[in-house]
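Review session, final week

We close the course with one last complete record, chosen because it touches almost every idea we covered. It is Cytosine-specific methyltransferase, a protein from Drouetiella hepatica Uher 2000/2452 with 372 residues. Go through it on your own first, then we will talk.
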Amino acid sequence: MKNKPLLSGLSLFSGAGGMDVGFIRAGVEVVSANDIDRDACLTYEANHPRGIIQCSDINQVLTDIRRFEGVDIIFGGPPCQGFSVAGKMNPNDPRSNLLWTFMKSVELIKPRAFICENVKALAVLDKWAEIRQKLFLFASRLGYTCKLVILNSSDFGVPQSRERMFLIGFRDVEDISNLETQFNRYKKPSPTIRAIFSLLGVAGSKNNQRVCNAKITIAAKPIMRRSPYAGMMFNGQGRPLNPDGYSCALHASMGGNKTPIIDEEHCYFGQDSWIEWYHSYLMKGGKPLSLDAAPKRLRRLTIDESLRIQTFPHDYQFIGKQSSIYRQIGNAVPCDLAQVVAEVVRDFLCQSYSTIPLPFIEDEAKQLWLAI
């Protein structure tokens, strides 16, 4: 960030602040944030002592949000359940309307740039083609040039195969034809699950205490795939993870049988994989084992392991019950991926940059949220 000025940013649908971590690292001064989840707001406050988070329904403060006019960037990830293939894909889901609340915020504040994160399905499925067209038309009428970029976290140092879309718009940067290629400069190899877990220790140890006790049971009618780490050999939607690869996408529904599975003896001590053995056994025509035949060496991901996969700082504090913490982690944008997005956006903005002094914006923001 040498010789680059700080940019000011407003964070919406902030959750626990994973996206904010990345943007702050990239030199964005977050002047204020908003989320409706009380635990997530407490988590945000615990880790961003200078941050101001308004814990409320964003629609209740939308009329006052224009007071933040002048910030450089608005960023956030409106709830995606209405668009996700993991959900019911219901366009009438009330949470889907929050995508337009985000765009309304852009209309009111007129930032130099905005970044709207959501699920890949919204960017690629024909089902959502009309919504994409409306998004681009709305942004164009506001004076923004936009691009829709799909990124996989595992291409940017995150040990997780998690594809997300980012709708990125600029108000005073006309040529963004090379936006996608700019992300190539930030690509780097990601560590394996085994590599990041080895720094923690086994479940229950000092640095890995927050275990998930959800039981693992064998599927009576397994759905087989070529890979031992695909298909459904166990009940529930929590897939087994390959320690020598990347995690599948972590979801907000973790905490029970939707939490991914790890073979601790294979991951931590280098023993042969029981998961791979069982897969081979079934592929050769073996009959499924009994419901309770899963060995104790198989367990669910812990909270601390999930945090590493999402690239949160090791000392990031989470507030709430275990189910709430898993939800906050799963809802977050991986911090390292968010940083890459912020770096690319600031590279474009800093080509020609002048700004209101940040101390003014920050002090003003404090007064404004207190007044709302």
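Two points worth writing down before the exam:
The domain at 7-188+333-371 is CATH 3.40.50.150 (Rossmann fold).
The longest helix spans residues 335-349.
Good luck, everyone.
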